[in-house]
Every structure is written in structure tokens, then in C-alpha cells.
Design goal:
8% of the residues lie in helices and 42% in strands. The protein is mostly beta strands and 123 residues long. The chain has a single domain (6-122), classed as Beta Barrel (Cyclophilin), CATH 2.40.100. Strands 3-9-1-2-8-6-7-5-4 form a nine-stranded antiparallel β-sheet.
């Protein structure tokens, strides 16, 4: 069943495979809306403690920002203008806006290397 509250997304990582997630509107409504309007997104991965991130073409400030994240969280990082995928609990460098979660194949993100291409699109 389709929901207006969440948007199913697919992550395709070059040479590794796919993972699924969803964007959840109530977590950060403005940020999620901007991300959805920008889909599909594509970028080169950078690594950080507990996760990875790639630049996205949106420029928003903090919205219900958090200083800690749990494993599986998708978040927008205002300072880096990037989408973050956390494969373990972490403390980001600066506050992030929660935008969703990974629902399938989270472990694939542990295998991602710096500079790999990632695509996020609607399912």
C-alpha cells in the first residue's frame, strides 16, 4: 500500500548491489520534500565514522536536527549539503536532519569504498 507519509527508495551502488529504504515525511517535512523533488539523486561516496554520505543538490538548514544517530538512519547533513547513510550508531560531525531509514540490505553500505557511485531513486 502506498503512503503519503513515506516514499520507498532504492539505492544502487556500482559494483555492489542494491538496498532499500524509505523517506518519512514527518521526520523533517521540508527536507524530505526537497529530496523527493530532486530524485533520482546520484553522487560519489565519501566515508565517515559509522556511515557514508554523498552530495545532494539541496541547500536547507537544520530541521528537527539530531546530534546522534542510530544504525539504519538516513539523514540530511545541512553543513555538508549531503545525504548520510548510517550503518552503525554514530555521532555526526554536526547536527543532521533525520529523513528516513534503510529497510533492506543495510550491511551492503559497510562494503562501500570512497568514490564509488551511488544512485537513489523512487521504487
Amino acid at each position: 500500500m502506498k503512503s503519503v507519509f513515506s516514499i520507498d527508495v532504492l539505492f544502487i551502488i556500482d559494483g555492489l548491489g542494491e538496498a532499500e529504504g524509505n523517506l518519512i515525511r514527518f521526520l523533517s517535512p521540508r527536507t524530505v520534500e526537497a529530496l523527493v523533488r530532486s530524485l533520482p539523486l546520484e553522487g560519489r561516496v565519501a566515508l565517515m565514522k559509522g556511515g557514508l554520505y554523498f552530495p545532494v543538490p539541496i541547500n536547507l538548514g537544520v530541521e528537527k536536527a539530531k546530534r546522534t544517530v542510530e544504525k539504519g538512519v538516513l539523514a540530511y547533513w545541512p553543513m555538508g549539503r549531503a545525504l548520510c547513510i548510517f550503518y552503525e550508531d554514530a555521532k555526526p560531525y554536526s547536527p543532521v536532519n533525520y529523513v528516513g531509514k534503510i529497510t533492506k540490505n543495510l550491511e551492503i553500505f559497510r562494503k562501500v569504498k570512497m568514490g564509488m557511485k551511488i544512485v537513489m531513486k523512487k521504487m
